[in-house]
Structures are given as structure tokens and as C-alpha cells.
Design brief:
Elements (H helix, E strand, L loop, with lengths): L8 H11 L1 H5 L12 E3 L2 E3 L5 E2 L10 H13 L1 H4 L15 H4 L2 H10 L1 E4 L4 E4 L6 H4 L2 H12 L16 H11 L2
Antiparallel strand pairs: 1-2, 2-3, 4-5
Helix pairs in contact: 3-8
Length: about 180
């Protein structure tokens, strides 16, 4: 059975609601933007075929969420801060993966974005030619979604599912190995 949830769901749900985490995000675990509809070869998807995360009751994360943590911290955290929390240089991304359409997220990362006006001067560089980002874009996205929901705490996830053969093959094909 595929199960999506938080580590120690019964204990943390009350704490999260009390702390306003869910109220702040406007999402719940059964929201169609979050909820796992199906699993295919170690990847989890919403009913709209958008990648999402899966965390078991004991805190084990799916492979993409674990990989996303690693890739985010190798490529994104320098500007956007550790664990998707943001910095003085660039905004927090952990909520962006919840609020931004998946395809808009892909577009911004691939092509970059520039906002320059009287109140804003920000540039997101294009990563469309960086295989260390593009081959792992879904991984980064699901990690940020999981962080936005506080389904995974700050820091490296403690345990993970094994990498499926299909994920390994897709990675090798993308990286040209």
C-alpha cells in the first residue's frame, strides 16, 4: 500500500496544526497538489501526473525527495538558503513548490527569470544547460514540496527508499553515462 504522511503522524499533526504550518501554507496532505495518487517505478505522482513526495509514518522518504535534498544543497542553497528557507540574497523556495504550478517551476529553473523595477531587482539564472540541475529537476521539486509541507524536517533525511532501476536508468541516460 502506498502511504503518504508525516513521521509519527498522530503526534506531529496536532503540533503542526497548532503551530499554523498547514494553515500558513493553505494546503493539507489530501490536497490534489500534494496527495499521492499513484506510484510508478519509485516515483510518486498526483492525480494530475505531477511529481510529489512520499514520506512513510516512520519518516522514510522516497528516493526523489532524498536525491532532491542532495541536489538542492549542491546547486540551489548557495542563493536560496539551506533547506529551502531563503536568504537575504534570494527567496525561500519551500513554499514556491506548493504555490507555483509545476510547469512554471520548470520554466523558471530552465530559462531563468529577471525582475527589475523600483521595488525589486532579482535575477534567477537559467539552468537549462546544467545537467546537475536538469537531470534532477523533479527531485529538487519534490524535495521543496516536502519541505513546504514540513513533511521532512530541516537537514538530511534519515532514511530513504532504494533507488529504483528505472530511476537509475533515467539518470544515466540524462547524464550521458
Amino acid at each position: 500500500m502506498i502511504r503518504q504522511g508525516f513521521s509519527l503522524v498522530a503526534l506531529t499533526t496536532g503540533l503542526m496544526v497548532a503551530s499554523g504550518v498547514w494553515a500558513e501554507s493553505g494546503y493539507t496532505m489530501d490536497d490534489p497538489n500534494i496527495a499521492v495518487s499513484y506510484e510508478e517505478d519509485g516515483r510518486y505522482f498526483t492525480e494530475d501526473d505531477v511529481p510529489t513526495f512520499n514520506v512513510t509514518d516512520d519518516g522514510k522518504v522516497d528516493w526523489l525527495t532524498f536525491s532532491g535534498f542532495r541536489r538542492y544543497h549542491s546547486e540551489c542553497h548557495v542563493c536560496h538558503g539551506p533547506d529551502g528557507e531563503g536568504s537575504t540574497y534570494a527567496p525561500a523556495l519551500k513554499k514556491s513548490a506548493l504555490d507555483m504550478d509545476y510547469y512554471d517551476f520548470l520554466d523558471v529553473v530552465t530559462n531563468g527569470r529577471q525582475r527589475v523595477d523600483a521595488a525589486d531587482n532579482s535575477v534567477m539564472p537559467a539552468f537549462g544547460t546544467n545537467l546537475n540541475v536538469m537531470c534532477y529537476l523533479d527531485d529538487i521539486y519534490v524535495y521543496l514540496k516536502a519541505r513546504g509541507m514540513e513533511a521532512v524536517p530541516r537537514g538530511r533525511p534519515g532514511s530513504k527508499e532504494a533507488k529504483s532501476d528505472a530511476i537509475r536508468e533515467a539518470e544515466n541516460a540524462c547524464m550521458g553515462t
